[in-house]
Design goal:
The N terminus is likely disordered. The chain is built from five helices and 36 strands. 11% of the residues lie in helices and 28% in strands. It has an 18-stranded parallel beta sheet, with helices on one face. Strands 10-12-14-16-18-20-22-24-26 form a nine-stranded parallel beta sheet, with no helix packed on it. With 517 residues, the protein is of the alpha/beta class.
C-alpha cells in the first residue's frame, strides 16, 4: 500500500511539474512572461512578437517589389502577384485567405504542395494561374472553405458558331494556357475531411475521383468539375441541398474514367440551384425535371442525352441563359413561345435541336443579348425582333434545316440594333445588300450565305472591328484588298462569290482569290 501511495504521489508531482513547465513555455512563446523571466532565459529582454488580429487584414505581396517578412506577418488576407514560386509563404501559418486578382492571374506560378503547412487557410483563390502539383498535398487544410485552382475558359455570355470559329483561327493564347493547367493532379478524395467546403473549382485540370468523394460535404454551394476526370453517378449529389452552381462533364483526356452518368432528375431536387452546366457526359433525362427550380438563372446542356419540351421554362422569372447544344439524341423540343415574357432572359441558344416556332416570340424578351438558333426548325421575319436593342449576337445559320420554314425579312431590319457584334444568316429568304450593314461599327463577325443578298464587300471596309467575314454562294463582288487597313481581320471566306484580290490577314494568313482552281 505504501508503495502504491508513493507511486501515486510521485505521479502527481511529475504531472504538476509538467503542467507548470507547459504553462511557462506557452507564456514564453506568447511573450507573457516578465522581463526577469525573459532575461533569465535569453540573457536579454525579448520583444513581444507581432500578433495578427482576428479581423482580416488585407495586403499585397508583389514579387516584383516584395514586402518584408515582418510586414507579411501582419497580413492574413493576402493577394499575390508576380511570383514564380511559393517559397516566401513558408512559415506564414497565420494566413487565412490567399488569392490573386484576375488582372494578375497569369503572373503567378508555384507548387501547391508549398501551401500544405498553412493550416489556417480558409480560402485558396488561385484560379487561372500557373499553379501546379498534387491536390493531395492539401490534406491538412481541414478548415478550407473555398478552393479555386481551376482554369476557366474565357467567360463568354453566349455560344455561336462565329465565336468558336474566331477562337480556332485566332489560336488564342487562352487555349494553350488552359492546357497547361492540367499540371494540377491528384484525387478529390482529399476534400472528404474538409467539412466546411462551400466552393470547389478544379475545372480544366487533371484531377481525378468520384462524385461520392464530395457526397458528405453538405455546405457545398459551388462545384466546378468540368473538364476534369471525375466519374460516378450524379445521384451522389442528392444530399447537397445548398448547391447553387454545378458544372460537370467532359474530361480533356477522353478517358472513360472521366465519364459521368445518372438521371437528370436529380437536379430537380436541389431547390437552390441557380446554374447547371453539363458538358459531354452520359447523363440522361428530361428537361421538364427542372421546372420547379424557381431560382434557376442559367442552364447549359452540351452533348448530353437530355431531351424534353422547353415548356419547362415557362414562368422562370430569374432565367437569364438557356443553352441546349449538340445533344447526342434528338435534343429538346417545343416552341419558342415558352420564353415569352421572361424579362431577365439574356441568352437563348439552340444547336441541332427540334425546337420550332416563330422568332417573334423572342421580341417579348427585351433584355436578350444573344439569339443562336443554329440547325433548329424556327421561322419568322427579322423585322419582328428589330426592337431588341441589347442584341449582340443573331445566329440563324441553317435555321429551319428541314426547309419547311425559313427566316425572312431584310438586312435593313437590323439597322436599329446598334449593339450587334455577330450577324450569322444562312439558307434564308432574307433580302437586302451589304450596304445595310455598313453603319454597324461594333460588328466582329459577318457570316451570310445561300441567301438572296447582294452587294460589294467595299461596304464592309470601314467596319474596323471585323475579325471574321464569310460570304458564300451569293451575288457579291469586290476586291478583298479593301480590308488591307483592318488589323483585326483573321478569317475571310468568299466561296461561290465574285470577290477577287489578294490580302494578308492580321494573323499572317494569305488570301488569294485570283488563283483559278
Amino acid at each position: 500500500m505504501k508503495r502504491i501511495l508513493v507511486i501515486i504521489s510521485l505521479g502527481i508531482f511529475l504531472v504538476m511539474v509538467l503542467l507548470i513547465a507547459t504553462i511557462y513555455i506557452e507564456k514564453s512563446l506568447n511573450g507573457d512572461i516578465g522581463k526577469s523571466g525573459a532575461q533569465e532565459l535569453n540573457g536579454a529582454t525579448t520583444p513581444e512578437p507581432t500578433k495578427v488580429p482576428d479581423v482580416l487584414l488585407e495586403g499585397i505581396y508583389d514579387g516584383a517589389n516584395p514586402i518584408s517578412d515582418a510586414e507579411l506577418a501582419t497580413i492574413n488576407d493576402l493577394e499575390i502577384r508576380n511570383v514564380e514560386n511559393f517559397e516566401f509563404l513558408k512559415g506564414q501559418t497565420h494566413l487565412i485567405n490567399l488569392r490573386v486578382s484576375e488582372e494578375y492571374a497569369d503572373t503567378v506560378k508555384g507548387d501547391i504542395a508549398d501551401l500544405s503547412e498553412l493550416v489556417k487557410l480558409k480560402v485558396i483563390d488561385l484560379g487561372n494561374t500557373g499553379i501546379y502539383g498534387d491536390i493531395g498535398s492539401l490534406e491538412k487544410l481541414v478548415d478550407l472553405e473555398h478552393i479555386n485552382i481551376g482554369y476557366n475558359a474565357p467567360s463568354d455570355e453566349y455560344y455561336s458558331f462565329a465565336h468558336l470559329t474566331i477562337e480556332m483561327f485566332g489560336m488564342l493564347d487562352d487555349i494553350f494556357d488552359m492546357l497547361s493547367q492540367e499540371n494540377i493532379e491528384g484525387n478529390i478524395s482529399v476534400f472528404k475531411n474538409m467539412s466546411n467546403l462551400q466552393y470547389i473549382n478544379i475545372c480544366n485540370t487533371s484531377a481525378q475521383g468520384n462524385l461520392s468523394d464530395i457526397a458528405g460535404l453538405f455546405d457545398l454551394q459551388h462545384v466546378d468539375f468540368n473538364s476534369a476526370a471525375i466519374n460516378g453517378d450524379i445521384a451522389e449529389l442528392k444530399g447537397l441541398t445548398n448547391l447553387e452552381y454545378i458544372a460537370i462533364g467532359y474530361t480533356p483526356t477522353g478517358a472513360e474514367e472521366g465519364k459521368l452518368s445518372g438521371d437528370f432528375s436529380v437536379f430537380g431536387e436541389l431547390s437552390n440551384l441557380k446554374n447547371i452546366t453539363i458538358i459531354y457526359s452520359d447523363i440522361e433525362g428530361d428537361i421538364s425535371d427542372i421546372a420547379q427550380l424557381e431560382n434557376l438563372e442559367a442552364i447549359t446542356i452540351y452533348g448530353a442525352a437530355i431531351g424534353g419540351d422547353i415548356a419547362a421554362v415557362k414562368g422562370m422569372a430569374n432565367l437569364k441563359q438557356f443553352n441546349a447544344l449538340m445533344q447526342t439524341v434528338n435534343g429538346v423540343t417545343g416552341d419558342l413561345s415558352a420564353f415569352e415574357g421572361l424579362e431577365n432572359l439574356e441568352v437563348v441558344s439552340f444547336m441541332q435541336n427540334n425546337v420550332t416556332g416563330d422568332i417573334k416570340s423572342l421580341a417579348k424578351c427585351p433584355n436578350l443579348i444573344a439569339v443562336n438558333l443554329t440547325y433548329s426548325k424556327v421561322h419568322g421575319n427579322l423585322a419582328d425582333i428589330s426592337a431588341l436593342a441589347n442584341l449582340k449576337v443573331l445566329d440563324v445559320s441553317k435555321a429551319a434545316y428541314d426547309e419547311t420554314n425559313k427566316i425572312t425579312g431584310s438586312l435593313s431590319d437590323l439597322n436599329a440594333l446598334s449593339q450587334l457584334e455577330e450577324v450569322i444568316i444562312t439558307f434564308s429568304d432574307v433580302t437586302g445588300t451589304l450596304d445595310d450593314l455598313k453603319q454597324m461599327g461594333n460588328l466582329i463577325a459577318v457570316m451570310i450565305s445561300d441567301s438572296p443578298i447582294k452587294g460589294d464587300i467595299e461596304s464592309l471596309a470601314e467596319l474596323k472591328n471585323l475579325e471574321l467575314i464569310s460570304l458564300a454562294n451569293m451575288d457579291v463582288g469586290g476586291d478583298v484588298s479593301v480590308f488591307a487597313g483592318n488589323d483585326k481581320l483573321i478569317i475571310i471566306m468568299m466561296e461561290g462569290t465574285n470577290v477577287t484580290g489578294k490580302l494578308t490577314l492580321s494573323n499572317g494568313m494569305q488570301v488569294d482569290l485570283d488563283t483559278e482552281e
